[in-house]
Amino acid sequence: MKIIKSASLTNIEANEVLVESTFTKGLPSFTIVGLPSDHIKESKDRTKSALLTNDYKFPPKKITINLAPSEIKKTGTHFDLPIALLIALYEEKNINFENIHIFGELSLNGEIKDSTSIFPIILSLAKQEIVKEVLVCEKSAQKISKIPNIKIYCVKNLFEAIEFFSKKNKNDFLYKKENLEYEKININNKDFYYEQKYPSDFLDIKGQENAINAALIAAAGNHNILLEGSPGCGKSMIAKRLPYIMAPMSLDEILEIAKLQSLDLKEPDFRPIRVSRNPHCSSTKASIMGSSNSLGEVALANVGLLFFDEIPHFPGSILESLREPLEDNCLLISRANSKIKYETKFLFVAAMNPCPCGNLLSKTKNCRCSELEIKRYKSKLSEPFLDRIDLCVVMNETNIDDKSIVDSKTLHNKVIEAFKMQILRGQKNLNGKLDDEEIKKFCILTNESQELLRKATQNFDMSFRSINKVLKVSRTIADLDGSSDIKKEHLLKSLGYRRR
């Protein structure tokens, strides 16, 4: 019996799979067992065609392929290559498959193709420190070459894959790794990447100085933000420009976004730009929160940005379900036979009108809403949900005399400097995602600031969660100001962004 190592994806994590083969006497047959999906069952025809078109004999025996462990359901077309190699080399006795994991989909003529699941599988195995060497096609190798500490061998077709195992010197098939060609900064011997390209620039926004300052704080510290204002005042414009000025990204974060892009059936681009997800208010709860079988918008926005436009129009069940990922930075989905945990370290941006018609704050238009309609509209956002928002901003109505205030590059440079301060302090997370212990360690107040916070807590009846939110926002404001301590002016500015 010969064994080749491969793997299968279960939700977002990979499990190592051993592809086992036996060739016994009996009526010729070809069977794949071990809970294979329909993709894998179809592998029999692809494998047979690939072998026969390349002049390899298909053994006239009873062939059994087992995918172990048998209790886990296997999916993906990347098992084609391991199965074909086991059949093509079944008579060879000195072949060593022990130290290498093999992935690849076969075309009918023996060409090896990439599949969307190969990159997230190998990335997951690398994080688990399971994989050291892999054999894949060139397109797969281009993607996984960004993953550190893995030796990659590259083959074009089934003939080269068979030749790979017959050669003693395998360096001819070694794939040269590619480095990320982006601007980077090195902090504490770790690289962080960023790109200063702004297809949507803050320079396009006229006026709204307070809202732009709040957006800067949100980007620098990864703070959740709610923008309230009349239609056309620039709420969506700010949300669309935020991803380009957010903090530099580590290699792990770039790979995480690439993995989520692959799972979303998109081609990963490996750019150090935070992903932005913008679900419509008519989206179902399953499409936003996800399920045990598929990723939702909340999971796909991890280490990026999630934007809810016209947030009062989203169903209350969805908004209340957001409380867990906003508070714990993770989402646990429990079903009868499975429990899946998704990381949700995203920047949450919400936008809303001041009333159903949108004209409540207008100086030129009359509001058509009754007090009851306005109260009902705003009551769709519960207090526990709003308590999880760090920054609340009421935006001014646009004026023809308003001018551009600042460009995205200037804002991005400020974010980068604040980011350096956070990492140099030894923080693993940005200020907005600090836990209780980290808040005590990094959010240091001066004596004057402590007294101010005590008075604010009494006057505004602030919850412990609200106090922590104020401290984290104050920490970011101090970082943007280049201050190691949180001073009175930083705390006052933070309190000004709390919803009352």
Automatic annotation (TrEMBL):
One Pfam family per UniProt: Mg_chelatase_C
Stored InterPro entries: CHLI-like, Mg_chelat-rel, Mg_chelat-rel_C, Mg_chelatse_chII-like_cat_dom, P-loop_NTPase, Ribosomal_Su5_D2-typ_SF, Ribsml_uS5_D2-typ_fold_subgr
Domain Mg chelatase-related protein C-terminal span(s) in chain numbering: 407-498
Residue ranges of domain Magnesium chelatase ChlI-like catalytic in the record: 201-399
A GO molecular function held by the record: ATP binding
PANTHER family: COMPETENCE PROTEIN COMM, MAGNESIUM-CHELATASE SUBUNIT CHLI
NCBIfam families: YifB family Mg chelatase-like AAA ATPase (TIGR00368)
Name of this protein: Fis family transcriptional regulator
Provenance organism: Halarcobacter mediterraneus
Organismal lineage: Bacteria, Pseudomonadati, Campylobacterota, Epsilonproteobacteria, Campylobacterales
